[in-house]
Fold this protein.
Amino acid sequence: MLQLRYSQRVLRFNFPARTSRGALTEHVVWYLHLTDTQQPGCTGLGEAAPLAGLSPDYRPDFEARLTQLCIEFNSRKFTADAAPEDVLALVGLDWPALRFGLETALLDLHHGGQRQLFNNPFSRGEAGVPINGLVWMGDAAFMREQIRKKLTEGYSCLKLKIGSLDFATEMELLAEIRAEAGPAELTLRVDANGAFVPTEAMAKLEQLAQFQLHSIEQPLAAGQWAAMAEVCRHSPVPVALDEELIRVTNPALQEALLEEVQPAYIILKPTLVGGLAAAASWWQLAEDWGISWWLTSALESNVGLNAISQLAGEYALPNFPQGLGTGQLYHNNLQAPLRIEGGNLHYNPSGEWELPALNDEGGSSLEEHRQN
């Protein structure tokens, strides 16, 4: 019989993580511990980490909902052969981070509780997944420092958060990067996090085009489909939808969104769209419309990051950088056998994991546990 419990951790950022929506200094994550009485010592681990300002389930009653889920789950007396869709039916679509956590805990337990959710070259440690180097917002000096560091570390793709500095300063930073490396050497992405208003968007995009950008994420705030469609139709910089996808869970509405807006790309964050299967549904629909996609983490700890990275190793296009470089953001992240080398994320299946441990009451205490 399966049993579900949870624990909690407060992650501390190494620096305030700034976007156009504000700055984050800490991030509360919840771990779902799934065990099976028929497999003593084996635990499937998932992560539910709703993100402030974005996640529909970033709510004061999140822990109460998680407690309720554990009670209901355990009362059902599921066995290991339970259909995943029957288990996930316990979590509504308006709790996407919770669905992601439960789904990945199930996958992990099904594959032996070793944090290997898929069997592919990445999860076997045979190949890396290319990622973009993320340059966070800050003052110009802070952003220059990050840019220099990323270039030194060998990234071939950088993504800059824009929209918090004045636009002229951001243009200067992009010009400095292009002076160091042309488009043949370095792919540049920018993420506006919805900072542009429709009346100014095209003028800014025309200025940004001189830097031969790969794409701009979410130039307008979500929910303005007609305005975003106009931007996508005329922008000299390819547009990627990100926040636009959150809360759009009805398949008919998803298709209506892609049909009307017709972006060049969509960006999929499983924590925000409702899990791995939900992300796959989005990309399958996008491919039907000739729209490309990539996967991005949403500031999860290494547990969630590992799950998304293994999904990328299974389905993402080879040599197409994913947004999976967020594991270095925290000074108290769980230790995991993930490393970044030369702009690629790698996993060592024989490496050590630091695992969150439950106390006797199933609450939120944590202690370190090593696993070979």
User: Anything to note?
Assistant: The chain has two domains: 2-114+354-371, 129-353. Residues 10 and 76 are 30 Å apart (CA to CA). The chain is about 35% helix and 20% strand. The first strand starts at residue 2 and ends at 19.
